[in-house]
Design a protein that fits this description.
The complex is a heterodimer of chains A (about 200) and B (about 110).
Chain A (H helix, E strand, L loop, with lengths): L2 H8 L3 H9 L4 H22 L2 H17 L10 H20 L19 E2 L7 H20 L2 H12 L4 H8 L3 H18 L1 H8 L1
Helix pairs in contact in A: 2-3, 3-4, 3-5, 4-5, 5-8, 7-9, 8-9
Chain B lengths: L1 H39 L1 H10 L3 E2 L5 H27 L12 H5 L1
The chains are: A mainly alpha (about 200), B mainly alpha (about 110).
Chain lengths: ~200, ~110
């Protein structure tokens, strides 16, 4: 791989890199994988709560991106297009497996390998760490209790920090529907973890 | 005259009192708002908690797996292209296997 091509690609926007991939520059695929792998994994993990399924889905998403590269048009953001593919794949997978109601809400025991977690404050005390862990578990459990429509929008909004417009594009629903689903999802989450939050705030 | 003066005084007093009241109400409402924002507003609390969830990254060996899968994908793509080229140009054919050389040369 030519390093000059690679460094040029690194300086390009997502959409420009995709255009290069459409033009046959295979190195562009590496750049896309590098830019989106963690974001996609995080999104899919919050949606599926299963590391194995999630990793398969991330890989399949990238392969689909490559296979259908000519169908991408730069009128939409590349991230929106990729998240749409990922969400559709996740939905299809879970429809096939019909596991949405039966998978565990506890930590994923199938994942034995080491994995990086990005926690904002690295200088945490032991009690704080325990507290943080509990807090994360509570939230993850609560997220899994939401229905699919609510879970996908709230993850895209509050975890992935996407705009309402992008979420509407990804989920294929109207902006108003997205906003109301997000609000209702937040209220539901609040109800589920209400006691926990109250004990924290008062 | 005096009574008029008193009335005026009363009015100004009332005005100052009511403005003070308004100020107090404003102060309390702003403090309540800020308190809500900081502490107990459900939407904000949930959103900020979700935003602060740790980013779950891919496994360390993910890049290698992905590279291998992509190599297979490229190979498959080349094979498909070759196959479609063969179908398009079916007049050009490789000779069949010669099972019995004697029939050809003798």
């Amino acid at each position: 791989m030519e390093s000059s091509t690679y460094s040029k690609l690194q300086q390009m926007s997502d959409e420009e890199v995709m255009q290069q991939l459409q033009n046959g520059v295979v190195q562009s695929f590496d750049i896309i994988v590098h830019r989106f792998k963690d974001r996609l994994h995080n999104f899919l993990y919050r949606y599926t709560h299963n590391h194995e399924d999630c990793e398969d889905l991330v890989q399949e998403t990238f392969l689909r991106v490559y296979r259908s590269r000519f169908s991408y048009q730069p009128i939409a953001k590349l991230s929106t297009w990729i998240f749409t593919i990922a969400l559709n794949l996740a939905k299809t997978m879970y429809k096939k497996k019909q596991r949405m109601t039966t998978f565990s809400i506890h930590a994923d025991e199938t994942d034995s390998e080491s994995r990086d977690f990005e926690i904002a404050d690295s200088a945490l005390l032991q009690d704080d760490e325990l507290h943080l862990k509990n807090s994360i578990e509570e939230l993850e459990k609560a997220l899994l209790q939401l229905n699919d429509d609510f879970r996908e929008v709230i993850i895209l909004r509050d975890v992935q920090q996407l705009s309402y417009e992008e979420i509407a594009d990804i989920t294929g629903t109207a902006m108003g529907t997205v906003k109301s689903r997000i609000n209702r999802a937040r209220v539901q989450l609040q109800e589920i973890i209400g006691d926990y939050v109250k004990s924290e705030t008062f | 005259m005096r009574s008029e003066k008193n009335q005026l005084h009363d009015r100004t007093d009332e005005k100052t009192r009511s403005s003070e009241k308004e100020k107090r109400v404003e102060n309390t409402s702003s403090s309540v708002l800020s308190y809500n924002k900081e502490k107990s507003l459900p939407d904000d609390s949930i959103s900020s908690r979700l935003a602060s969830l740790p980013v779950v990254k891919v496994k360390p060996g993910f890049d290698q797996k992905m590279a291998a899968l992509f190599a297979l994908e490229l190979e498959e793509e080349i094979r498909r292209k070759c196959f479609s080229w063969q179908i398009k140009t079916n007049k050009i054919r490789l000779p069949d296997l010669i099972t019995d050389l004697r029939s050809e040369f003798f």
